[in-house]
Amino acid sequence: MKKITIAIDGHSSTGKSTLAKDLAKALAYSYVDTGAMYRAVALYCLNNGVITDEHIDANKVVAVLDEIKLDFKYNPNKNSSEIFLNGTNVEDQIRTMRISNIVSKVSSISEVRKKMVTQQQEMGKNKAVVMDGRDIGTVVFPDAELKIYMTAQPDIRAQRRLDELRSKGNTDVTFDEVLANLEKRDKEDQERLDSPLLKANDAKEVDNSNISREEQFDLILGMAKQIIKD
Ligand code: DC
Predict the structure, then answer these.
(1) 34 C-beta closer than 6 A to ligand 1
(2) What pLDDT shows up at residue 169?
(3) Which ligand 1 atom sits closest to the C-alpha of 136?
(4) What CATH code is carried by the domain that includes residue 67?
(5) Is 60 within a domain?
(6) HSE-up of residue 151 (Cα within 13 Å, Cβ side)
(7) What is the pLDDT of residue 37?
């Protein structure tokens, strides 16, 4: 059967990872969460005093890039892959508001992007992959057979994100804080000079404000199957 590349881009907290994981499982493809890679770089820099919550010096980040090794390993208990930073599983540590507040700035550094994109292209070189991020259909895999651009109303996204954070024990976070963070990240991701978030010309836009996870999954799996059988 024909193997394809599926690129899923879009705004923050639109459920890209959930959709990508569901698709990868249904098609027996691998899944790569590229946002996790940028988050892990931010975590390394924060933990090692390279950056602070308030200040990011791009030159200092670039100087430590070679110290950062990222791998994904499949966790059969969770039925998904998890990110390892220099051999340590940091899947939970990268999902905090603290990291969310600095990650867009770290990801706007061109050298950081160059290193991540090279690794992403290597991971997807044999196709049969679902990759989600902000520049997958435009930069990482511009020839991807299926490109999806996801969006949803900001307040709906904020509520979904808040529910997710709370379910993981982050009880001190508020709706307004989450909403402000995702609006700020959208702005930074769309306005950065190097590979900003934008819809590829050949991407299908999906606004999931009013459709369920299942409806969205059926719709996009249908698109993928159509391409695979052609
Ligand atoms: O998907 P996420 O929210 O975990 O991504 C975290 C940040 O990483 C996001 O605000 C922008 C950046 N990012 C990026 O610049 N390019 C990607 N391909 C994926 C994420």
Answers:
(1) yes
(2) 87
(3) 18
(4) 3.40.50.300
(5) yes
(6) 11
(7) 98
Q: What are the residues whose beta carbons fall under 8 Å from the beta carbon of 140, sequence distance 6 or more? A: 7, 34, 117, 120, 121, 124, 131, 133
Q: Which residues contact 192 (CB under 8 A, 6 or more apart)?
A: 104, 107, 108
- Domain count of the chain? 1
Protein residue whose Cα sits closest to atom 9 of ligand 1: 104
Instruction: Please check whether residue 41 lies inside any domain of the structure.
Output: yes
Which protein residue has the closest C-alpha to ligand 1 atom 6? Answer: 35
Ligand 1 neighbour 186 (Cβ under 6 A): no
pLDDT along the chain (230 residues), means of 10: 96 95 95 97 98 97 98 90 97 94 96 98 97 98 98 96 90 94 94 96 97 96 95
Evaluate whether residue 230 is within a structural domain. Answer: no
The CA 126 to ligand 1 mean position distance, Å, reads 23
The CB of 157 under 6 Å from ligand 1? The reply is: no
Q: Which domain holds residue 85?
A: 5-224
Q: Which atom of ligand 1 is nearest to the CA of 185?
A: 10
Has residue 229 been placed in a domain? no
The pLDDT value given to residue 170: 83
